[in-house]
Write a structure and sequence with these properties.
alpha/beta, N-(1-d-carboxylethyl)-l-norvaline Dehydrogenase, domain 2, 2 domains, 6-stranded parallel β-sheet, 3-stranded mixed β-sheet
Length: 286
Amino acid sequence: MRTAFAGLGVMGYPMAGFLARAGHDVVVYNRTSSKAESWAKQFGGRHAATPEAAAKDAEIVFCCVGNDDDVREVILGKQGILAGIPSGALIVDHTTASATVAREIHGVAAGNGVGFLDAPVSGGQAGAENGQLTVMAGGDAVDFERAAPVIDSYARAITRVGPAGSGQLAKMVNQICIAGIVQGLSEGLHFADRAGLDPAVVIESISKGAAQSWQMDNRWRTMVDGTFDFGFAVDWMRKDLGIALEEARRNGANLEVTELIDRFYEEVQAMGGHRWDTSSLIARLP
Protein backbone atom coordinates (compact mmCIF):
# COMPACT_ATOMS: atom_id res chain seq x y z
CA MET A 1 0.00 0.00 0.00
CA ARG A 2 0.91 3.66 -0.25
CA THR A 3 1.59 4.61 3.36
CA ALA A 4 3.07 7.41 5.44
CA PHE A 5 4.45 7.42 8.97
CA ALA A 6 4.70 10.52 11.17
CA GLY A 7 6.87 10.34 14.27
CA LEU A 8 10.16 8.44 14.19
CA GLY A 9 10.94 8.04 17.86
CA VAL A 10 12.19 4.85 19.50
CA MET A 11 8.92 3.18 18.55
CA GLY A 12 8.00 4.78 15.23
CA TYR A 13 11.40 4.43 13.59
CA PRO A 14 11.48 0.61 13.61
CA MET A 15 7.72 0.34 13.02
CA ALA A 16 8.02 2.35 9.82
CA GLY A 17 10.99 0.18 8.90
CA PHE A 18 8.89 -2.96 9.12
CA LEU A 19 6.32 -1.36 6.80
CA ALA A 20 9.04 -0.76 4.24
CA ARG A 21 10.45 -4.28 4.64
CA ALA A 22 6.96 -5.69 4.06
CA GLY A 23 6.95 -4.02 0.65
CA HIS A 24 4.76 -1.01 1.34
CA ASP A 25 5.61 2.36 -0.15
CA VAL A 26 6.48 4.53 2.88
CA VAL A 27 6.92 8.31 3.18
CA VAL A 28 8.07 9.44 6.62
CA TYR A 29 7.88 12.69 8.54
CA ASN A 30 9.68 13.61 11.74
CA ARG A 31 9.89 16.91 13.57
CA THR A 32 13.68 16.57 13.55
CA SER A 33 14.26 16.22 9.83
CA SER A 34 17.68 14.58 10.16
CA LYS A 35 15.95 11.53 11.72
CA ALA A 36 13.65 11.25 8.71
CA GLU A 37 16.62 11.56 6.35
CA SER A 38 18.47 8.80 8.21
CA TRP A 39 15.41 6.55 8.07
CA ALA A 40 14.98 7.11 4.32
CA LYS A 41 18.64 6.29 3.75
CA GLN A 42 18.43 3.12 5.84
CA PHE A 43 15.16 1.75 4.50
CA GLY A 44 15.01 3.21 1.01
CA GLY A 45 11.80 5.17 1.55
CA ARG A 46 11.15 8.87 1.15
CA HIS A 47 10.82 11.69 3.65
CA ALA A 48 8.65 14.80 3.65
CA ALA A 49 8.98 18.22 5.24
CA THR A 50 5.49 18.25 6.80
CA PRO A 51 2.83 15.73 7.84
CA GLU A 52 0.63 17.23 5.12
CA ALA A 53 3.20 16.47 2.43
CA ALA A 54 3.82 12.97 3.76
CA ALA A 55 0.09 12.18 3.69
CA LYS A 56 -0.51 13.19 0.06
CA ASP A 57 -1.59 10.16 -2.01
CA ALA A 58 -1.36 7.82 1.00
CA GLU A 59 -3.94 5.11 1.56
CA ILE A 60 -3.02 4.73 5.24
CA VAL A 61 -1.13 7.25 7.37
CA PHE A 62 0.35 6.07 10.67
CA CYS A 63 1.55 8.30 13.47
CA CYS A 64 3.28 7.71 16.78
CA VAL A 65 4.06 10.89 18.72
CA GLY A 66 4.16 12.01 22.35
CA ASN A 67 0.86 13.15 23.83
CA ASP A 68 -2.57 14.65 23.11
CA ASP A 69 -1.19 18.00 22.00
CA ASP A 70 1.28 16.32 19.63
CA VAL A 71 -1.51 14.18 18.16
CA ARG A 72 -3.66 17.24 17.52
CA GLU A 73 -0.76 19.11 15.94
CA VAL A 74 0.39 16.34 13.63
CA ILE A 75 -3.15 15.42 12.51
CA LEU A 76 -5.26 18.58 12.82
CA GLY A 77 -2.57 21.26 12.46
CA LYS A 78 -2.35 23.71 9.58
CA GLN A 79 0.17 21.45 7.85
CA GLY A 80 -1.12 18.29 9.49
CA ILE A 81 -2.11 14.94 8.09
CA LEU A 82 -5.74 15.89 7.46
CA ALA A 83 -4.62 18.81 5.31
CA GLY A 84 -2.99 16.41 2.86
CA ILE A 85 -4.60 13.00 3.14
CA PRO A 86 -6.99 12.00 0.35
CA SER A 87 -10.68 11.42 1.04
CA GLY A 88 -11.32 7.72 1.62
CA ALA A 89 -7.92 7.14 3.22
CA LEU A 90 -7.27 6.05 6.80
CA ILE A 91 -5.29 7.41 9.77
CA VAL A 92 -3.92 4.99 12.38
CA ASP A 93 -2.63 6.66 15.54
CA HIS A 94 -0.26 4.53 17.62
CA THR A 95 0.36 7.25 20.22
CA THR A 96 -0.63 6.49 23.80
CA ALA A 97 -3.02 9.38 24.37
CA SER A 98 -6.44 10.04 25.88
CA ALA A 99 -9.71 8.50 24.73
CA THR A 100 -11.03 12.07 24.54
CA VAL A 101 -8.60 13.12 21.81
CA ALA A 102 -9.20 9.84 19.96
CA ARG A 103 -12.94 10.47 19.82
CA GLU A 104 -12.35 14.10 18.84
CA ILE A 105 -10.10 13.23 15.91
CA HIS A 106 -12.33 10.34 14.83
CA GLY A 107 -15.17 12.83 14.48
CA VAL A 108 -13.14 15.42 12.59
CA ALA A 109 -11.65 12.79 10.29
CA ALA A 110 -15.07 11.33 9.53
CA GLY A 111 -16.29 14.80 8.59
CA ASN A 112 -13.49 14.88 6.01
CA GLY A 113 -14.28 11.45 4.61
CA VAL A 114 -11.26 9.87 6.34
CA GLY A 115 -11.22 6.86 8.65
CA PHE A 116 -9.45 6.91 12.02
CA LEU A 117 -8.24 4.24 14.43
CA ASP A 118 -6.73 4.89 17.85
CA ALA A 119 -4.28 2.00 18.11
CA PRO A 120 -1.83 2.32 21.01
CA VAL A 121 0.77 -0.41 21.36
CA SER A 122 2.38 -2.47 24.10
CA GLY A 123 5.74 -4.19 23.97
CA GLY A 124 8.11 -1.27 24.38
CA GLN A 125 11.18 -0.48 22.33
CA ALA A 126 12.19 -4.14 22.11
CA GLY A 127 8.77 -5.07 20.77
CA ALA A 128 8.98 -2.35 18.15
CA GLU A 129 12.48 -3.35 17.07
CA ASN A 130 11.51 -7.02 16.80
CA GLY A 131 8.14 -6.46 15.12
CA GLN A 132 6.38 -8.05 18.10
CA LEU A 133 4.03 -5.34 19.33
CA THR A 134 0.56 -5.85 20.78
CA VAL A 135 -1.94 -3.41 19.26
CA MET A 136 -5.25 -2.38 20.89
CA ALA A 137 -7.52 -0.60 18.42
CA GLY A 138 -10.59 1.57 18.69
CA GLY A 139 -12.68 2.66 15.72
CA ASP A 140 -14.99 1.38 13.01
CA ALA A 141 -14.80 -2.30 12.13
CA VAL A 142 -14.42 -1.61 8.41
CA ASP A 143 -11.36 0.57 9.08
CA PHE A 144 -9.87 -2.05 11.38
CA GLU A 145 -10.24 -4.80 8.79
CA ARG A 146 -8.51 -2.58 6.27
CA ALA A 147 -5.60 -1.67 8.53
CA ALA A 148 -4.95 -4.96 10.34
CA PRO A 149 -3.05 -6.74 7.53
CA VAL A 150 -0.71 -3.76 7.23
CA ILE A 151 -0.21 -3.36 10.98
CA ASP A 152 0.61 -7.06 11.06
CA SER A 153 4.03 -6.23 9.60
CA TYR A 154 5.20 -5.04 13.06
CA ALA A 155 2.72 -6.68 15.45
CA ARG A 156 2.23 -10.12 16.95
CA ALA A 157 -1.34 -9.42 18.12
CA ILE A 158 -3.94 -6.94 16.87
CA THR A 159 -7.37 -6.59 18.51
CA ARG A 160 -10.27 -4.25 17.85
CA VAL A 161 -11.58 -3.47 21.33
CA GLY A 162 -14.56 -1.33 20.33
CA PRO A 163 -15.52 2.08 18.92
CA ALA A 164 -13.30 5.18 18.82
CA GLY A 165 -11.42 5.67 22.08
CA SER A 166 -11.58 2.00 23.07
CA GLY A 167 -7.99 1.34 22.06
CA GLN A 168 -6.78 4.08 24.38
CA LEU A 169 -8.97 2.81 27.20
CA ALA A 170 -7.52 -0.69 26.76
CA LYS A 171 -3.99 0.75 26.89
CA MET A 172 -4.90 2.40 30.20
CA VAL A 173 -5.92 -1.02 31.54
CA ASN A 174 -2.58 -2.37 30.30
CA GLN A 175 -0.59 0.28 32.15
CA ILE A 176 -2.63 -0.07 35.33
CA CYS A 177 -1.88 -3.81 35.36
CA ILE A 178 1.82 -3.35 34.61
CA ALA A 179 2.24 -0.80 37.40
CA GLY A 180 0.75 -3.20 39.94
CA ILE A 181 2.86 -6.12 38.74
CA VAL A 182 6.11 -4.15 38.86
CA GLN A 183 5.39 -2.85 42.36
CA GLY A 184 4.54 -6.36 43.57
CA LEU A 185 7.74 -7.76 42.04
CA SER A 186 9.77 -4.94 43.59
CA GLU A 187 8.38 -5.64 47.04
CA GLY A 188 8.83 -9.40 46.60
CA LEU A 189 12.50 -9.05 45.65
CA HIS A 190 13.03 -6.54 48.46
CA PHE A 191 11.47 -8.98 50.93
CA ALA A 192 13.63 -11.84 49.64
CA ASP A 193 16.75 -9.74 50.16
CA ARG A 194 15.77 -8.82 53.72
CA ALA A 195 14.95 -12.47 54.45
CA GLY A 196 18.42 -13.55 53.32
CA LEU A 197 17.20 -15.56 50.35
CA ASP A 198 19.06 -16.03 47.08
CA PRO A 199 16.87 -14.17 44.56
CA ALA A 200 17.92 -16.45 41.71
CA VAL A 201 16.73 -19.51 43.61
CA VAL A 202 13.49 -17.81 44.66
CA ILE A 203 12.69 -16.71 41.11
CA GLU A 204 13.53 -20.18 39.76
CA SER A 205 10.99 -21.55 42.20
CA ILE A 206 8.08 -19.11 41.93
CA SER A 207 8.37 -18.28 38.22
CA LYS A 208 6.94 -21.70 37.40
CA GLY A 209 3.73 -20.94 39.30
CA ALA A 210 0.97 -18.36 39.56
CA ALA A 211 3.37 -15.49 40.32
CA GLN A 212 5.00 -15.72 36.88
CA SER A 213 4.87 -12.63 34.65
CA TRP A 214 6.74 -11.04 31.76
CA GLN A 215 8.19 -8.55 34.21
CA MET A 216 9.49 -11.33 36.44
CA ASP A 217 11.03 -13.25 33.55
CA ASN A 218 12.68 -10.23 31.94
CA ARG A 219 13.40 -7.78 34.76
CA TRP A 220 14.18 -9.58 38.01
CA ARG A 221 17.92 -9.81 37.37
CA THR A 222 18.38 -6.15 36.42
CA MET A 223 16.21 -5.11 39.36
CA VAL A 224 18.44 -7.03 41.76
CA ASP A 225 21.53 -5.57 40.07
CA GLY A 226 20.12 -2.02 40.21
CA THR A 227 20.46 -1.55 36.44
CA PHE A 228 17.77 0.59 34.86
CA ASP A 229 19.35 2.42 31.90
CA PHE A 230 17.09 0.81 29.29
CA GLY A 231 13.45 0.02 28.56
CA PHE A 232 10.24 1.99 29.07
CA ALA A 233 11.06 5.26 30.83
CA VAL A 234 9.51 6.32 34.12
CA ASP A 235 8.56 9.68 32.56
CA TRP A 236 6.54 7.85 29.91
CA MET A 237 4.85 5.64 32.48
CA ARG A 238 3.85 8.64 34.57
CA LYS A 239 2.36 10.24 31.47
CA ASP A 240 0.36 7.08 30.80
CA LEU A 241 -0.75 6.67 34.41
CA GLY A 242 -1.78 10.33 34.46
CA ILE A 243 -4.05 9.68 31.47
CA ALA A 244 -5.56 6.64 33.20
CA LEU A 245 -6.12 8.49 36.47
CA GLU A 246 -7.77 11.40 34.65
CA GLU A 247 -10.08 8.98 32.84
CA ALA A 248 -10.89 7.29 36.17
CA ARG A 249 -11.95 10.62 37.60
CA ARG A 250 -14.40 10.89 34.71
CA ASN A 251 -15.80 7.37 34.81
CA GLY A 252 -15.75 6.85 38.58
CA ALA A 253 -13.26 3.95 38.64
CA ASN A 254 -11.44 3.44 41.94
CA LEU A 255 -7.69 3.26 41.26
CA GLU A 256 -6.28 3.47 44.78
CA VAL A 257 -3.24 1.28 44.12
CA THR A 258 -2.50 2.98 40.80
CA GLU A 259 -2.56 6.39 42.49
CA LEU A 260 -0.12 5.11 45.12
CA ILE A 261 2.26 3.63 42.54
CA ASP A 262 2.14 6.83 40.52
CA ARG A 263 3.40 8.64 43.64
CA PHE A 264 6.15 6.01 43.97
CA TYR A 265 7.22 6.75 40.40
CA GLU A 266 7.31 10.42 41.34
CA GLU A 267 9.80 9.49 44.06
CA VAL A 268 11.91 7.65 41.46
CA GLN A 269 11.91 10.79 39.31
CA ALA A 270 13.11 12.79 42.34
CA MET A 271 16.00 10.30 42.60
CA GLY A 272 17.02 11.22 39.05
CA GLY A 273 15.29 8.27 37.43
CA HIS A 274 13.28 10.09 34.78
CA ARG A 275 14.64 7.88 32.00
CA TRP A 276 15.12 4.72 34.05
CA ASP A 277 13.12 1.64 33.13
CA THR A 278 9.81 1.26 34.96
CA SER A 279 11.28 -1.66 36.95
CA SER A 280 13.22 0.99 38.91
CA LEU A 281 10.39 1.09 41.44
CA ILE A 282 12.62 -1.23 43.48
CA ALA A 283 15.25 1.55 43.74
CA ARG A 284 13.13 3.51 46.21
CA LEU A 285 13.00 0.62 48.68
CA PRO A 286 15.72 0.92 51.36
